[in-house]
Amino acid sequence: MLTSMAELTNIIKGIAAEVKVRETLQDDSISTVYLIDYQGIPSVLRLDKPVTDYLGLDRSAEFHLLSCFQSYGFSPEPLYSDPREGILIYRFIEGKALTPTELGTKAKLVELGKVIRSMHHLQLPDFKTRFVDQIRHYEKELKNDADMSLLKRGIELFESLTKNEDDWVVCHNDLIAANLVQGERLFILDWEYASLNHPYFDLATVLENHAMTDSQSKQFLDAYSGKRQSIDLVQLDQWRQLTHYISLFWLMVIKKYATISEKEKVTMVNLENRLSEAKG
Length: 280
Prior knowledge:
The protein is of the alpha+beta class. The chain has helices spanning about 5-15, 60-70, 100-105, 105-120, 130-140, 150-160, 200-210, 215-225, 235-255, 260-275; strands at about 20-25, 30-40, 40-50, 80, 85-90, 95, 170, 180, 185-190, 195. The strands form 3 sheets. A 5-stranded antiparallel beta sheet has the order 1-2-3-5-4, covered by helices on one side. Strands 6-8-9 form a 3-stranded antiparallel beta sheet, covered by helices on one side. It has a two-stranded antiparallel sheet with strand order 7-10.
């Protein structure tokens, strides 16, 4: 449900700066996103909904990460955050969110591969958020509610892939076309799930969410690695499988505490069927 205008007005009053709401950009089960003017700057206001309390998100770490990223030029500039009130404001990026078809062009695949490679090479010693903590949170939330066989298999697959965290890097963890905006360069939005993770999770997310051909996959992986031969394709396939478990767990948590859309219901059923038929 959209926040009422009266509620939104009260929230804005708590921000110690001039805020003018221009329009609603997006409303889903997690948050409502508005286009605003913040101190005269075209900006985006993301306002959390109650279900975010159950997703294990660290809003303070997200703001810190966005602040650390500013000199690298692939993320929005954070302007204001109040985690207790579920508020994030960042500078609006002039551009267009990519469609899967647009992302599938060679130029975009190469650009994205290089941006992800740059991100994975960053050294941010103060960033401590770990993907394993997110998984343990889902496990805790679902252990008494979910299909235990799927939950158990997903957790076992994760554990088999993460026995050693030495090669973990800063990952976005939600690299879908809708989170990619083409402005003067390629920008990545929605860093709320970012954490230290194995780099293959980001690669797997891109490959699994955009119905790429073998040729497109090769172009993307070559751009990322410099040469595709340096990527363990067998292990990458296992990470691709894990992305489906994580998507399912995420939907299960949301369904437990909020109302999911019809599209999300269909996605959830498809994931359950696919993973039930799989061997692991």
